[in-house]
Amino acid sequence: MQPIEIDHVAIAVEDIEKAVSYYQNSLGAKLVHRERIESDGVEEALLIVAESYIQLLTPTSESSPVARFLAKRGEGLHHIGWRVPDCAAALEEVKEEGVEVIDQKPRPGSRGTTVAFIHPKSSFGCMIELVQEGPAAN
Ligand code: CO
Q: Residue of 41, 68, 78, 90 with fewest CB within 10 Å of its CB?
């Protein structure tokens, strides 16, 4: 596959309002997007830093994978989003390489993106999200 940019670095947080305020006021990141993603059980805040985002993520339900992450590991780095031109093609390529994936098929992400997750087991403990701008081609 051909990654073209770091799309975002996602950080799991307990109190998203507090985290947004800190990242904006103390670190100078600019808040550009808020979204509640019901299918993932999370609320996100995207703060832009140059061409990439810092994504603050907080669970909206106890069954959310992010709620389980926070309970097990506490706040901190959750995953890194790698921008790719074509999520479906990138996913097929990494699967052919034997990479363990979480999503067998791309699915809709926040702000109209198309995404698929690679298992942290395959990537030395860091979950990777393949992110394509816009909807899937087919
Ligand atoms: Co993400």
A: 68
> Would 138 be classed as within a structural domain?
no
Q: How many domains does the structure of the chain reveal? A: 1
**137 occurs within a structural domain:** no
Q: What is the pTM of this model?
A: 0.89
Ligand 1 centre to CA of 79 (Å) is 7
In which domain, by residue range, is 78 found? 5-132
Whether 76 is covered by a domain: the verdict is: yes
CATH number, residue 56:
3.10.180.10
> Is residue 44 among the annotated active site residues?
yes
One-character DSSP codes across 57-123: EEESSTTSHHHHHHHHH-SEEEEEEEE-S-HHHHHHHHHHTT--BS-SS-EE-GGG-EEEEEPTTTT
Ligand 1 centroid from CA 93, angstroms: 20
Question: Is 79 assigned a catalytic role?
Answer: yes
Catalytic residue among 43, 78, 129, 132: 129
